[in-house]
Amino acid sequence: MDELNQYYNSKISPEKMFLGYKELFPNELELLVIYNLYISKSESTENFEYSEIKQSILDSSKLPFLNLGTQIQVERVFKKLLGAFIERIPGNFNQFVLTPHAERIIEIIVHRIKNPYLQFPLKETFETYFQLPENAENDISLLQRWYKLGFQNTARQVVIGHLEGLKIAVDQAIKELNQVLEADDLTAIQMLEKFAFNFRILGEKAKQINEALRVKEDVYYSLRAIVETFIQKTDSYKHPNTTFEQIAYSNLEKERESARYIKEEVFIFFDKVDKQLSLINARLTFASYKITELQESLRAQSHYKINLKKILSFLLENSSSDKNGIKLPNGFPAKDIVQQKFRFRPIRYWDRGFLLRGKPFEQESDQLYEQEERNKLELELAQQKLIYELCEKAQKDLSESGTLNLSSRLFEIMETENNIEVVVETGYELMRAISKTTQINIKEELQSDKNNTIHTWKVILQNKPNLNS
Amino acid sequence: MESNTSEQAEFEFLKDTQVQQHFSELNIELLRGVHILSSDVTLFGILDLYRDPFAHYYRKLYSLELQQRTYDGISFFYLEFPITGKGKLSNSTLFQELDAESTIVGFILANLYYASYFSFDKKFHWDDIQYEIEHGEHKEAYQNLFFNASRAEYSDKEWDNVKRQFRVVINFFDRIRLIEKEESEESIHFTVLPSILHFIEIYQKELENTDEFLKEIKLTD
Question: Which residues of B91-218 form beta strands (DSSP E)?
Answer without folding.
Answer: 95-97, 123-125, 179-181, 189-192
